[in-house]
Amino acid sequence: MEKKKFVEAITSRDEDFARWYTDVCIKAExxxxxxxxxxxxxxxxxxxxxxxxxxxxxxxxKKTNHQNVYMPLVIPESLFKKEAEHVEGFAPETAxxxxxxxxxxxxxxxxxxxxxxxxxxxxxxxxxxxxxxPKLYNQWCSVVRWxxxxxxxxxxxxxxxxxxxxxxxxxxxxxxxxxDILDAYNTLGRDLLAIPFVMGQKTEKEKFAxxxxxxxxxxxxxDGKALQSxxxxxxxxxxxxxxxxxxxxxxxxxxxVHQTSWGVSTRLIGAVIMVHGDDSGLxxxxxxxxxxxxxxxxxxxxxxxxxxxxxxxxxxEKYNIRVAIDDSDKTPGWKFSExxxxxxxxxxxxxxxxxxxxxxxxxxxxxxxxxxxxLDELVKIIPTLLKEIHxxxxxxxxxxxxxxxxxTNSYDEFKRIINEKQGYIKMMWxxxxxxxxxxxxxxxxxxxxxxxxxxxxxxxxxVCGDKAKHLVYYAKAY
Amino acid sequence: MEKKKFVEAITSRDEDFARWYTDVCIKAExxxxxxxxxxxxxxxxxxxxxxxxxxxxxxxxKKTNHQNVYMPLVIPESLFKKEAEHVEGFAPETAxxxxxxxxxxxxxxxxxxxxxxxxxxxxxxxxxxxxxxPKLYNQWCSVVRWxxxxxxxxxxxxxxxxxxxxxxxxxxxxxxxxxDILDAYNTLGRDLLAIPFVMGQKTEKEKFAxxxxxxxxxxxxxDGKALQSxxxxxxxxxxxxxxxxxxxxxxxxxxxVHQTSWGVSTRLIGAVIMVHGDDSGLxxxxxxxxxxxxxxxxxxxxxxxxxxxxxxxxxxEKYNIRVAIDDSDKTPGWKFSExxxxxxxxxxxxxxxxxxxxxxxxxxxxxxxxxxxxLDELVKIIPTLLKEIHxxxxxxxxxxxxxxxxxTNSYDEFKRIINEKQGYIKMMWxxxxxxxxxxxxxxxxxxxxxxxxxxxxxxxxxVCGDKAKHLVYYAKAY
Lengths: 478, 478
Known about the structure:
Two copies of one chain form a homodimer. The first copy, chain A, is an alpha+beta fold. In chain A, 37% of the residues lie in helices and 27% in strands. In chain A, the strands form five sheets. An eleven-stranded mixed sheet of chain A has the order 3-7-8-14-11-10-9-22-23-21-20, with helices on both faces. A five-stranded mixed sheet of chain A has the order 16-15-17-18-19, sandwiched between helices. In chain A, strands 4-6-5 form a three-stranded antiparallel sheet.
């Protein structure tokens, strides 16, 4: 009874995907709404996901000599306006502080929507010689972008992210950094989130305000829409010229630095929900999961059951497995549902009879497969299962991308497919903005990226008939 | 020559302590000023100190079942005004967002100066039963308080901190939390920062806006001024009543929760600088230090020297010792000065002759003691030395507190001492605000706290002659 009631409370994924998504966010206790429109509360379980992403990525960045810094929350308006394209891109969505300490400020302060100008201003001061390069700085913080329509984790007036900002002696190094980080993001998807990304370059229309080139990782959600999940930008010397960031090189010449920036955000949590979740709630990939094994004692009032549960927990924790016990006064059925809603990769059931037989039952969240396991073998079997689950979840997601990636050389077919089926459509493109605009106007699909692995499926742009230059992944997107 | 020039660049500590402090902040590359007045840039070396404090404390908090969350950056003005005393305390120093997305906002948004009201508003929604208690939430973030005069790490318009906010079923548990966290802060001082704190209760006049009781840890700086380094607050049911946070208890009755809040900030970095630093710069306690051992190759152009340095680094890192090599083209003397400026606990010198003798020279930063060490014993000796250094630095700081803590039962003597000598003065107090005010007016000294270990040195308040109630630590303070 209880279980049914609990499960019924969430909308079916295929019936109303948007509502299913919000239900999962709330019911799995990932977030809550605040009184400030568009600003959300990251609840402990949701924040723990972000902490695990941070921990993984921060470690990777430190291994590659990146250093963390913290820049101010606010940007004086005059500084913000120093790079023309950049300010044009961000000005309309800024929040502005006009009062401080009960007085109207002489200069308005922009709450950072991104911190390029702060890093540039600092780099101008601290870089003067080739000895000062490269600067490989990163910052973990929140940024504010005023959004009219917001959705938890996907689009909010405030979100958490990391923003890397680097300065290099030449174009080659800066371009390498741009691609290395894109690759690191892709690896994060593969090894932590169990999400296969498509990596590619953004078109001129879709690139970052102020960038020479923008690259992105794109993920395909269960509903067939794409989600831009992270970007890296090569800036050339544009910001360096606007901010006068130059250095004396080994050859004695004074040169401008070449810069990059790159970021991933709490949007990745949205990707995890929409790639892996199902009608019972969240399904978490094991290495991301704050709790990997949820022990649910059966007939916990019987002497010895709870003791055994705690004993197992302590033993597993020695092997760095993240374990919880649900010893609340709810029924086991209710606990099972909650464990599924929270997407905990493995449920461990143990009752008096299991103890007698020195065994327990393990249930995988993603496919509900049950295994009876000898207690003496738990510490060996669980790491293996977690690894298998991760791989299986990745494979399913990859299968979904493959099954929902189509290609065409006919624009009529493109329009037909995009309305019938969701997913990526690969189509050649001439490189003109007009054709990209036309696709968006006709179909609401946007160019997601031009994949890194060069591929050609035709010679002409099906939209205008001109010579094709690039293959583009199109999709409807979040 | 170079060395002299480098060292000369910082002011002597005893000549001008304030300038010495700023010099160290800049020269050790801990921070830089930004274009927004009162907002500083945490440079990599300074931010790494904060990361180590975070890592230590976050681990302690998680061990005691605290959970991290993230609340919005902004508070709608109406919400901010819900608890009267609290708003009165913070309103004058707030920064206010009045424009968002190019439009004037209907309701102004306060940038959080602290997040009590956000947590209360959330707790009201998620707490309804004794089963939901306790809630032990913590948040790592930055807050904004508009300050007229600012100093790096000590007082800024923006600072980084953690703020804990907890809700409990009864007073006893909430009071225990308040004291447990105070104790955790004290332990952080002892075990990580090598700073002996005085723990005590704040007087009515000095307590937090909205608190029933406030406790603090106070540290004594080299110049004899005190620095409040962290606080914990017991709120009783004041906020709970203002925000209607109640729950059904086991006995069926509906009750208000009892709350606490507590925080330490980047101010702790200021404390470390001013407790341990000297005329050559920063002196870092070993467990806090981002780099514990700085290898400086001597005659590094000689074949084999740099290889050996890297070999030693790799070996030490296996034992989780944090090591750097300075293989830049600066002279060894210059490198020594930089290593001292950055306060790195151990300098390791190695040159061709050392390699022949299978040895190196270790120099302790805090007292410049040199030891010649056999290379085969390095991995054993260094952890021991780091431990010894930590203890010695703590002992020196404690000695300084003892030597600069005086007591008196005469207000005339109090006034004389406070002008002649810096440090704490212990004096009895009747409990009346007027006497506290008078002390401040006459001497600029403020009551720091009433120490936890009850102590009495007299029966009357030397200021007014009335019956004494408490012993108070007075000092001039930052």
